[in-house]
Design goal:
Blueprint (H helix, E strand, L loop, with lengths): L7 H22 L2 H8 L3 H8 L2 H20 L10 H17 L4 H11 L4 H25 L5 H16 L16 H29 L1
Length: about 210
Amino acid sequence: MRVRSDGAETRRRILDAAGSVFARRGFRDATMAEIAREAQVNPALINYHFTDKETLYRQAWQRAWERTRRRYRLGDTPPGKTAARRLVWLIGAMVRAAADRRAADQEIWRKELAQPTELLAVIRQTVVVPLRRAVGSQVREILGPEADDQAVRLATMSIISQCRTPICGDAGQRPFVDVDLARRIEHIRRFSLGGLRAMRRKSASAADRR
């Protein structure tokens, strides 16, 4: 089927190409000319569909993020499970997403941390805050009513940090975590649940002494 050059298919090709180029180059070093070559479109079509580089950058990340969210079902914790099982689900989803070197949104996120643009605030609101809430909700339930807000926040931060640490380093660098993905997920699961149980025992013991 023939697709019009100004149609939805062209827009999709531009967004996919832009995601790939921004993931490799970062916002500052990526050029519209390179994106046009990768998308195999006339550069004028990029301006027609997206007006400017900033708009294209945000929408390319958003498209890539939606693909990652659906692929790993981030935030879709299974109903009817215990808080521990829901947390284990989230741990697996976060680790697999962070380890996916094909995912343009993850590479763009990493580059944003090194050289932030206005997109970083969007990523925080779209990804970081919802994940923090989802993990924090399970953590609070596991720690029990005796745990204070600070304990919940610290435990949540610890779990998310473990999941977001890159498995593979940049090109030419030694991986920070050079282990099998399944083994890493299992380690974070055991480490996190063990730590949360110890925190709950400590909180309960302190409550008994009061």
